[in-house]
Fold this protein.
Amino acid sequence: MTKLTPLYDFHVNQGAKMTDFAGYMMPIQYSGIQEEHMAVRQKAGLFDVSHMGEFMVEGEDALAVLQKITTNNVKSLKIGQAQYTLMTNEEGGIIDDLIIYRLDEQKYLMVVNASNIKKDWDWLIENKTLNCRTENVSEQTGLIALQGPKAIQILKRLTDSDIESLEYYHCMMGQVAGASSVLISATGYTGSGGFELYINSDQLVSVWNDIWEIGQQEGLQLAGLGCRDTLRLEMGYCLYGNDIDETTSPLEAGLGWVTKLKKTDFIGQSALIKQKEKGVVRKLIGFKMDGKRVARSGYNILDGKGKVVGEVRSGTFSPCLQTPIGLGYIPKDYEINNKRITISNGRKNFDAEIVKTPFINVNEYGN
């Protein structure tokens, strides 16, 4: 049965185009993906991302358990700090990408992808110890993403918390629009700055409405998951299920920077050490299309002789660049020696150029 977030009625009343996403009925777009996208880049956008999963991990062994199941070094986290990380299986394949918050001395919050909530929870339970208490708080936690260069101006009008001092990937507890115990986090999936607000579900609608009312004065627009995808792709951010999954490793996906191979043993570490010593065979690359045709997930990537060498994982039309962009896997040796690829949908071929990510410098597009 498809689930609804507490904001479902608001989305419908605003004329949002709704669709089933990871078991939740979510807004894909309101006014249009390109318009919403540029609002986030230049002013601000408001996203309902309450479909995401949240797990509390507490106790004497909380740190040890998180160190065991994630690739980044949780030990380096200070209270009030967040960390992007991965969970990998024994073979080094990516179970999920996630964020860990250190809320207190022995208290952590894991934020996981909606499509992986059950799988991730089962993995956590399988690897926890007696001195580690866990709670799946996904159902009672709402999540609002207020993103864009004007996000801070909007949020300042609704909280007394010192959000101007909040550094990137840091968080604090505070009141927002009258709601207490809101986790205010300087994180997001757009590259344009802003905040993510973790709120008790029964206070979500009230806070959302206040942000929407105040924010419109600063050019705030409602934003759906459609532009969330175009925004993340312009930054070269991976999407689980597309660019990364259990068949891909962090080293292949360019996520070695969150894979600390020298830390205390974690699941998949030995396989990843072997892969690094041997060298990855393939890697995730960014590309720009020569024409206006968007490369879709599953399209083949060909070399100059028409031989299939890889596969497109994500593709979209970039509103900022006004050209199609994408991510895909190709042999590492090919990428070193070539900057041109051909994309094939099985009927037609399209020329493309391998480029570095992120595809854009967001500072060139903000006001």
